[in-house]
Design a protein that fits this description.
It is a single chain. With 283 residues, this protein is α/β, with parallel strands linked by helices. The protein has a single domain, classed as Alpha-Beta Complex (2-enoyl-CoA Hydratase, Chain A, domain 1). It contains eleven helices and ten strands. Helix 2 runs parallel beside helix 3. The longest helix has 26 residues. It starts with a helix and ends with a strand.
Length: 283
């Protein structure tokens, strides 16, 4: 009985030691490491990921980054923040390899375009290069139930996208110019690092919101190779020059709400808002 008791104690100590060891190594990696980060879901709040990328850039042990992208896109500004964070990481002389999962479309592709090298699976859904602003008008509904909305505004465009009235033709032109400008930013962001893979003429031809499989994207020059996450890790070793580097998987921090329903409160608020510009694949 006493022997069994000591065996249980020893077993518990070994488990605790293993957990503590993994925690310490994840926070303070030893040796050359390939950091592996995940970007998943709708891109709304970029800062948790941006902050991680910045810390990894400054780590002497981290020699490259593999970013696993599984996202249909999101808001324009948030996508651009992550794109710049990847550029900043690269400015330290450390390569970034993108590994596309099920979906890396619209803003998910925008972010990916900043990488040194892009992997996709054959069936990955990507592309959807475009911009969208949606407007839903409740005018007829509120009239039926006797609600009247009045806007006191400082200019004719101040309540553009109000759900209580239809858009005017002038407002439609104004919004179209806005999405056209955001699309131009998207195109230039892709060309910045992929001009030698896809011509500007071809890119503009396909930048109409259509989606592609990973295999089609490879043929077009939107991605560099068909491969898995572990292929991406091997490529990161090659590009960094550290063949002995070990992968360091950075755990995704999820709120309780995200664990239950797959999204955060802030994402719900912005997705349901009618004001932001989106690099978002509709589905």
């Amino acid at each position: 009985m006493r022997v069994l008791k000591w065996l249980l104690i020893l077993f518990s100590i070994l488990i605790i030691f293993s957990v503590v060891k993994e925690f310490i190594l994840s926070k303070f990696p030893l040796g050359h490491r390939i950091a592996v980060l995940k970007l998943s879901g709708v891109i709304v709040n970029p800062y948790p990921l941006v902050n991680k990328i910045e810390k990894l850039k400054d780590s002497k042990n981290v020699v490259a980054l593999v970013l696993r992208v599984d996202s249909p896109g999101g808001s324009v500004g948030a996508s651009q923040e992550i794109y710049r964070a990847i550029e900043h990481f690269r400015s330290a002389g450390k390569p970034v390899v993108i590994s596309m999962g099920n979906v890396a479309a619209s803003g998910g592709y925008y972010v990916s375009a900043a990488g040194n090298y892009i992997f996709a699976n054959e069936g990955t859904i990507t592309g959807s290069i475009g911009v969208i602003i949606q407007h839903v008008a409740y005018k007829k509904l509120v009239e039926k139930i006797g609600i009247e909305a009045t806007a006191i505004k400082t200019g004719k465009f101040k309540d553009t996208l109000s759900p209580f009235r239809e858009l005017t033709e002038e407002e439609k032109k104004y919004l179209q110019n806005l999405v056209n400008e955001a699309l131009e930013q998207f195109i230039q962001a892709i060309l910045k690092y992929r001009r030698n893979k896809i011509s500007e003429e071809k890119l503009r031809e396909i930048a109409d919101g259509r989606i592609f499989t990973g295999r089609q994207a490879l043929e077009l020059g939107l991605v560099d190779e068909i491969g898995s996450l572990y292929d991406a890790i091997e490529k990161a070793k090659e590009l960094s020059g550290y063949r002995d580097a070990k992968p360091l998987f950075i755990q995704e921090e999820k709120s309780l709400l995200r664990k239950f329903i797959g999204t955060d409160l802030e994402e719900i608020k912005i997705i349901n808002s009618y004001t932001p510009l989106f690099y978002l694949m509709e589905y």
